[in-house]
Structures are given as C-alpha cells and as structure tokens.
Amino acid sequence: MAKVLKSPAKYVQGANTLFEFDRYLQGMGKRLTVILSQGGVKRLQSTLEKTFAGKNFEVTYVVFQGEATQAEVERISAIVLENNCTAVVGIGGGKVLDTAKAVAHTTERPMVIVPTVASSDSPCSSVSVLYHEDGSFDRYLFLDKCPEMLVDTSVIVAAPSRLLVAGMGDAMATWFEARACRASGKNNQVHAKPTYAATGLAQMCWDNLRHSGLAAKLAVDAHVCTEAVETIVETNTYLSSVGFESGGLAAAHGIQKGFTFIPALHQQLHGFNVAFCVLAQLVLENSLAELKEVMDFSDSVGLPICFADLGYVDVMPEEVR
C-alpha cells in the first residue's frame, strides 16, 4: 500500500498577519465570501475592511448562524454561487471553520481558514464535522484537499489560555498515536501508510509541548505573543493536524469518542478529554515512565489527570464501560 501525506499547500503564521491577508490570496481571485461568527464580525470585520481597502477585492461578509449543519452549508453555498465568489474564507472557531470548509467543498472553491483560537488540530485537516439542528452529531464530510491556512497569533493571544491548553491536549496525543500506528502497521486517516515526515511531525508535537508549553500558557495568560506562543500555536494547529491525519490515530481518540456518550463529559473541550485518554492509552501500553512524564506535563499546564479534573465527579462505572 502507498504512503500518503496530506497537508495545506500554504501555512502562514505570525502576529498581525490579518493586516496583510491579501498578500496570501494569490490564485484565488478577487471575489471572496468571508464567513464569521457574530462575535467575529464585531472584533475583526473592521480589520479586514482596512486590509482589503483600495485593493480591488469584492468581499461578501456572511454571519454564521451558530451550528455547522447541512442547512447552513447550503444557505452559505447559495450566497457564494449567487455572488460568483472565487474563494471561501472561514474566520473563527471550530464550527465556523467546519462550515467554511464544507461550503468550499460544496461549491468547488479554494478555501482559506483563519482560526481565532488554537484549541484543536482540526483547522487545516481535510475533514469537516457536521451536526444536526439540535447540536447532535450528523456526519463527517471528507474533503478532497486541506485548506490553506492563515493564523494571526495576535488574535490567538487575546483568547483565554484555557483554549490554548486544550489544543495542547489534542497535540499531545499526536505523537503517541502516530507511534502506535507505525508500530502496528495500521493505516493513517487518509487510508494509507504514514510517511516518515508525518511521524516526524507528530514527534515534534510532544517535543515542542515539553519545551515550550508552560511558557506559552503563561504568556497567553498575560495576552503576550512570545516565541513560545508561536511555537505552540504552530504545534496545535499545523504539526498536530498533519501529524494526526497523515500519521494516524489510535486508542486515545478511540476512547475519547466513547466519552462523548457520557453526559458529564459531552460538553467538555475536546482537547481536555483527549489529554486524559492519552493517559489511558499509556496504561494500555504499560508505558509507566512516559505515563509519569505526561502526567507531570499535564499537571503543569492544567490538563486533566483524573475524571474530577474533567468535571466528572460522580463516576458511574457502567457509563465508563
């Protein structure tokens, strides 16, 4: 079987990159549909208007209606087609970005994703998660390609550090799961064997977290963008994304999927649940020295090491089984 690595064609990261967004849109035409949440409109639309002023862009701003549903994808897709837009831009958190990716896929337009938080590794993956109107899971939509990425770290540091820490939990799993996939000979998430590049990027996630994770968390607490923050944002959003999709997933994310059926854990941030499940995977592997190392790191940045840390105080064994 072939080895396959899937990744964005372009990844741009740095402070205040939104002010030069137009520089990174070569080949995408001049008619953009920009999808933002209501909060994103308030915080970022004026910045975007300044960025595109006098540069011959026609921008249609669309306010996301709150849930990444098939109906929302169809609504925005109709706007893209009606305005003959040449590219789709999604700016915001997970559900805004999932919707933007699905719209671009549906309308066969190129896409750029601009995450406003670094809380998971999903933004530059080639999958979009769709939900029903009541918020329950609908399906995964698998895309032909990964979106291009622009990450403005001055926006990321304005968000609560808890979200960055959640992203660290998701990124922490990347190495241990990719390692398990390679050792077992299993396929990655694009149904192929992992390349050495993908496994190497996955290992870099854990190295970066150990070296820069705590420093990045403390910097974001102070809303300061430092080199440690830049390192961890890239780790959470790019290295972990390519690492999980092209390196493969294992027990940690498998157990986490089960956790979504426990009501007390259903609303917990994905990265916090995954971080706990890394501990479970290491127990299964009998990797006790690494288990202690991961627990020490988790404790230092505020990731969970027990059910109570996840808000699951009255543990019900039958639910866990």
Could you name the key traits of this structure?
321 residues, alpha/beta, two-stranded antiparallel ribbon, 12 helices
At a glance:
The protein is an alpha/beta fold and 321 residues long.
Account of the protein in words:
Helix 3 (94-107) links the parallel strand 4 and strand 5 (111-115). The relative contact order is 0.13. The chain is of the alpha/beta class. The protein has helices at 38-52, 70-82, 94-107, 153-156, 161-184, 196-221, 227-247, 251-259, 263-266, 270-284, 288-301, 317-320, and strands spanning 11-14, 31-36, 58-63, 87-92, 111-115, 127-131, 137-142, 148-152. The mean pLDDT is 95. It is globular, with a radius of gyration of 19 Å. The strands form 2 sheets. A 6-stranded parallel sheet has the order 1-8-5-4-2-3. The chain has a two-stranded antiparallel sheet with strand order 6-7. Helix 5 packs antiparallel against helix 6, helix 5 (161-184) packs parallel to helix 10 and helix 10 (270-284) runs antiparallel to helix 11 (288-301). The two termini are 35 Å apart. The protein is built from 12 helices and 8 strands.
Q: How many helix segments?
A: 12
Order of helices and strands: EEHEHEHEEEEHHHHHHHHH
Rg, please? 19 Å
Straight-line N-to-C gap: 35 Å
Average pLDDT, rounded to a whole number, is 95
Strand elements, count: 8
Strand order of the largest sheet: 1-8-5-4-2-3
The low-confidence runs, each spanning 5 or more residues with pLDDT under 50, are none
| Helix/strand structural class | alpha/beta
Let me know the largest β-sheet. Answer: 6 strands, parallel
Strand content: 5-15%
Instruction: Please state the overall shape, judged from the principal axes of the Cα atoms.
Output: globular
